[in-house]
Specification:
Elements (H helix, E strand, L loop, with lengths): L5 H23 L12 H4 L8 H20 L5 H19 L10 H21 L16 H22 L4 H36 L1 H9 L1
Length: 216
């Protein structure tokens, strides 16, 4: 039996498609064009944005995909999976509490976005086992959780700096951080599924495994 179900691969693959496809399509629908280097993703789902439903659906779908993927990452620690699911729920909240206007602000929206970015950057570190514990996700590189979380946190930090200082590349920083966070679960799921396949192939080619299968 597969440890990581195939539907986890589907949900993790759909996440970056919904996010990147959403912001790309929504930007083309804005009258007069939309600068994705300086314009935020949230602006595309703001109440005064043209065809705001595109980015809203993309964010809703992204959040749901993270929740489904978290349920499928069975070999990983529960703390990391819960944090990934929390990031998904917070992403849904981002869509549910849109900005009142492209240049406006919203406290519920800001809180949800902060929770989403933080949880989706930190979850790999909590999903990986401790260095003294046996690794239930064998097939992933040693210290993979820290290795994955470090660049995610760096990208989120860049976005925060642009946000606080009103930098001209706030949209680019946000897209780099959110895009990386959307791709991370897919890379983890793909690695674990490849591990499952190799384990199954070794078991099928092992004489003792074949004899046990015949006896059963």
């Amino acid at each position: 039996m597969r440890v990581v179900p195939r539907w986890a691969l589907l949900s993790s693959a759909a996440a970056p498609v919904l996010l990147i496809g959403g912001w790309t399509w929504a930007a083309t629908r804005q009258p007069g064009g939309f600068d994705q280097v300086s314009g935020t993703i949230s602006a595309l789902a703001a109440r005064d944005a043209a065809d705001r439903w595109i980015m809203t659906v993309g964010l809703f779908g992204l959040g749901l995909c993270h929740c489904v993927t978290a349920a499928g990452l069975r070999p990983l620690r529960a703390a990391g999976r819960l944090l990934l699911a929390l990031g998904g729920v917070a992403t849904v909240a981002v869509a549910a509490f849109p900005l009142p206007a492209e240049r406006g602000s919203s406290t519920p929206h800001g809180i949800a976005a902060a929770m989403a970015f933080g949880a989706l950057a930190l979850w790999p570190a909590l999903a990986a086992p401790g260095h003294r514990a046996p690794d239930p996700a064998a097939g992933l590189p040693p210290r993979w959780g820290t290795t994955a979380a470090a660049p995610l946190l760096a990208l989120v930090g860049w976005f925060v700096v642009e946000l606080v200082t009103g930098g001209p590349r706030i949209g680019l920083a946000e897209r780099a951080a959110s895009g990386a966070e959307a791709l991370c679960p897919l890379l983890v799921v793909a690695t674990l599924i490849r591990r499952d396949r190799r384990t199954a192939e070794r078991a099928a080619g092992h004489p003792a495994a074949r004899s046990r299968g015949v006896d059963q």
